[in-house]
Design a protein that fits this description.
The chain has 289 residues and is mainly α. It contains eight helices and no strands. Helix 1 packs antiparallel against helix 2 and helix 3 crosses helix 8. It is elongated and about 65 Å long. This is RTA1 like protein. It comes from Zasmidium cellare ATCC 36951.
Length: 289
């Protein structure tokens, strides 16, 4: 990954890639994300885990983003086309926000499965609404900022960078609050478990939720530091940070969700709801007689 001297006219000091992008690394992660995303597609459909659709779309964005980097690598040492740069910037920025949306909804399904609404200090339905709303705000801010940051105008580029920072901070704040909500729920459930908690496999799904949350949280912090340092900062200037703290962490997050897929929770919840409907239908039939 040798340093590239290509700069963008009109935006003094700004370089799309202050190094020669690694084609090999981009191809490897394109393939890795294609594999895990394909498995997620199969799991999503076979287990009808529709709340994992955002997670699957996030995987698609990761694939598109690293394809964009493959294209950029073929243009080294520049000048680099703006199109692939904008595509990879936006897709790799916002994909984790889509992962987060599914994680937020997963907690709601675990609570529903355990019939443990009373263990949350806010209503279960509000948990999903509040955190997904924050996630959408983060997604839109990062997407808008990512597009503006690639502008040849230095003022527009700086504005885009600032918007990205705000979007990432929103993501970090909501993720932090979410982990607190999940941890408090976990503690209360351990102290006073519901009957379902003794028999259903909820703990492994909570641990998975924590693991993926931590990976996204750490990744977001590193990216905040990257954009605070600016386009001439140490993190932005060294491609290794992208592959260690973004590509690798997000691939691990997707892989973890492949291994401990929440489809198990979805199947249990559907069975419980169907059982409740059957009981209600039986009661209505008896009453009608």
């Amino acid at each position: 990954m040798s340093n590239s001297t290509s700069t963008d006219s009109g935006n003094s000091g700004f370089q799309k890639y202050p190094y020669d992008p690694s084609e090999a690394a981009a191809i490897i992660f394109t393939v890795l994300f294609a594999l895990t995303t394909s498995l997620h597609a199969f799991q999503l459909i076979s287990k009808r885990t529709w709340f994992m659709i955002p997670f699957f779309i996030g995987g698609i964005l990761e694939i598109v983003g690293y394809i964009g980097r493959v294209i950029a690598a073929t243009e080294a040492p520049g000048p680099y086309e703006t199109g692939p740069y904008i595509v990879q910037t936006i897709t790799l920025l916002v994909a984790p926000a889509l992962f987060a949306a599914s994680i937020y909804m997963q907690l709601g399904r675990i609570v529903l499965m355990l019939k443990a609404d009373d263990k949350l200090f806010i209503r279960r339905t509000w948990v999903t609404k509040i955190f997904v709303a924050g996630d959408v705000a983060s997604f839109l801010l990062q997407a808008a900022g990512g597009g503006l940051s690639a502008s040849d105008d230095s003022n527009t580029s700086k504005l885009g960078k600032d918007i990205i920072i705000v979007g990432l901070f929103v993501q970090i704040v909501f993720f932090g609050l979410f982990v607190v909500v999940a941890a408090l729920f976990n503690i209360r459930l351990n102290k006073n478990p519901t009957p379902s908690a003794h028999t259903l496999p909820w703990k492994k799904h909570m641990y998975t939720l924590y693991a993926v949350s931590i990976l996204i949280f750490v990744r977001s912090i590193v990216r905040v530091v990257e954009f605070i340092q600016g386009f001439e900062g140490y993190i932005y200037s060294h491609e290794v940070f992208l592959y260690v703290f973004d590509a690798t962490m997000m691939f691990i997050a997707m892989g973890i969700m492949n291994v401990v897929h929440p489809g198990e929770v979805a199947v249990i919840v559907r069975g419980q709801l169907q059982g409740e409907k059957d009981v209600e239908s039986g009661s209505e039939l008896v009453e009608s007689r």
